[in-house]
């Protein structure tokens, strides 16, 4: 993990900047690793269209999922046993984020611009981002990526080109969260898909208070996961990363 230089930008307190809880906090800055680090440690994340200036958000309430409470569906377990995909961590971050940036069948546009890709890839190189990949032999068929600071784990986006494979990556992330006793994984904004996976919400005030605790704790040892290849079948049978 690299020691980042101090950010040249100071972000406002979300509660003071947005007392009515609309979620929009400020505009401007850049997407350098130092700026992204500063934003996430203050409860903000970037969200904007490619032709817009950089917008920073801190929603009220905050969507989170508690790894200890996560329960995979029976259909997911059946698919994990049936296909036996290989699952890795931090093996193909740029491929994952670029796959997440592609248009979906339900939307022609994506918020993951080339600037976002470059910014988060640089953050990954500095040691403050992660990815989970799902492979069918040599082909990347699904995955997710996010930001990691201390034991703060922030989910960003996921993709799949096979049934349930993004959920397999998500299950793997939940098991990493369980092993490291993470109080929550940040999912940012509530939506139907996240709710179906067991997500809940915290008030912004409670989230920001908890955030200050997790970002100063020792970091997750991502290298220990990066050095292994996991089997979806093994995970499904034993409900843990190693059988």
**What structural class is derived from the secondary structure elements?**
alpha+beta
SS element count, helices: 10
What number is the mean pLDDT? 95
Adjacency order of strands in the biggest sheet: 10-4-9-8-7-6-5-11
CATH H-level superfamily of the largest domain: Leucyl/phenylalanyl-tRNA-protein transferase, C-terminal domain
Considering DSSP H and I runs of 4 or more, what fraction of the residues is helical? 25-40%
What report would you give on this structure?
With 243 residues, the protein is of the alpha+beta class. It has two domains: 14-58, Leucyl/phenylalanyl-tRNA-protein transferase, N-terminal domain (Alpha-Beta Plaits); 63-238, Leucyl/phenylalanyl-tRNA-protein transferase, C-terminal domain (Aminopeptidase). Helices cover 35% and strands 22% of the residues. The chain is built from ten helices and eleven strands. It has helices at residues 14-17, 33-41, 74-83, 93-100, 114-125, 165-179, 192-196, 204-214, 222-226, 232-238; strands at residues 24-27, 45-46, 55-57, 62-65, 86-89, 129-136, 139-149, 152-160, 185-188, 200-202, 230-231. The strands form two sheets. It has an eight-stranded mixed sheet, with helices on both faces. Helix 2 packs across helix 5 (114-125) and helix 3 (74-83) packs across helix 10 (232-238). The longest helix has 15 residues, at 165-179. The chain is globular and about 50 Å long. The mean pLDDT is 95. This is Leucyl/phenylalanyl-tRNA--protein transferase. Functions in the N-end rule pathway of protein degradation where it conjugates Leu, Phe and, less efficiently, Met from aminoacyl-tRNAs to the N-termini of proteins containing an N-terminal arginine or lysine. InterPro entries: Acyl_CoA_acyltransferase, Leu/Phe-tRNA_Trfase, Leu/Phe-tRNA_Trfase_C, Leu/Phe-tRNA_Trfase_N. It holds the Pfam family Leu_Phe_trans.
